[in-house]
Amino acid sequence: MTAVTDQTRSLIAQSKSLPPENLKLSDIQQLSRFQKRTASSTENKATRTAISEKKAEVVSKLIADLKSNPKHHSEPVTVCKVGDELILVDGHHRYQSYAAAQRDTVPARVLECSESEAHMLAAMLNIYNSTIPVGKEERSEMAWREVTRLHDGVEWPGNLSAHKMAGLVGLSPKTIDRMVVARKKHGEDAVRLTWKQARRDTQERSYSSEERLVGWLTTLDKINAESDHEIEVLIELIRAWKQEYCSKEELAERFVPLLEDPEAFQRRLMASLREF
């Protein structure tokens, strides 16, 4: 099976290099689920204002340019051919500008792909948009929507992983791991939550776990002596600390999943025994 990341990168390359063709505006579908940039409301007021002003500036200049000369055109929009449908995945403001300038057609690069691939492509092209700035919160929200779409609450599809997803969307693997934890915790309700809503309790739990682990390495009396699991994790934590040169914080971050998931910790112990 072709790697999800390789296929996505191939589609991104095609969206920049394929020869454009003129498509009728009426033939292209603008579907709300492919309009990924709907999360700017999660940014602070200053960032929202900056994004809004830049958007208005780009659109007004393009409309004026298109009206001034019928031979003028913008950078092609990106359209995905999914079955018999032509779906706009990047260039919504350009599309709207052509409509406002009373143009019948728009230059477009057309890529044939599945609906799932079209979703990922739409997210990627918008996350790395260089014309209209993308805020940190908005980037996270777009990534969260892709996590809830791709991760079913149990596992990733195909050979996709948190690490690969992090590389695609430009966030840390740790952040994607938190999104996966939130996806599992909230189940089907996750798709109705923003990342800002979903991360509250998972972020809080992750930080407290890290602090506990750092505390164990600093002051052993912070451990719960009545918990066999915590004692076993502590022993492994100290063993790793003695053998590896890294900070307490780095070790703590790595051991958080083992502290929070006893079954995962036991699997790690069994794997270590087999290696031994």
Q: What's the quaternary structure here? A: single chain
H/E series: HEHEEHEHHHHHHHH
The CATH topology label of the largest domain is: Conserved hypothetical protein from pyrococcus furiosus pfu- 392566-001, ParB domain
Largest sheet: 4 strands, mixed
Care to describe what's here?
The protein is an alpha+beta fold and 276 residues long. It folds into 2 domains: 4-193, Conserved hypothetical protein from pyrococcus furiosus pfu- 392566-001, ParB domain, CATH 3.90.1530.10; 201-275, no CATH class. The chain is 59% helix and 9% strand. It contains 11 helices and 4 strands. The chain has helices at 4-17, 45-68, 92-100, 115-127, 136-150, 162-169, 173-186, 195-218, 228-243, 248-260, 262-275; strands at 21-24, 77-82, 85-90, 105-112. Strands 1-4-2-3 form a 4-stranded mixed beta sheet, with helices on both faces. A hairpin with a 2-residue loop joins strand 2 and strand 3. Helix 6 packs across helix 7 (173-186) and helix 7 crosses helix 8 (195-218).
Question: Which helices and strands appear, and what pairs or packs with what?
Answer:
Layout: H1 4-17, E1 21-24, H2 45-68, E2 77-82, E3 85-90, H3 92-100, E4 105-112, H4 115-127, H5 136-150, H6 162-169, H7 173-186, H8 195-218, H9 228-243, H10 248-260, H11 262-275
Parallel strand pairs: 2-4
Antiparallel strand pairs: 1-4, 2-3
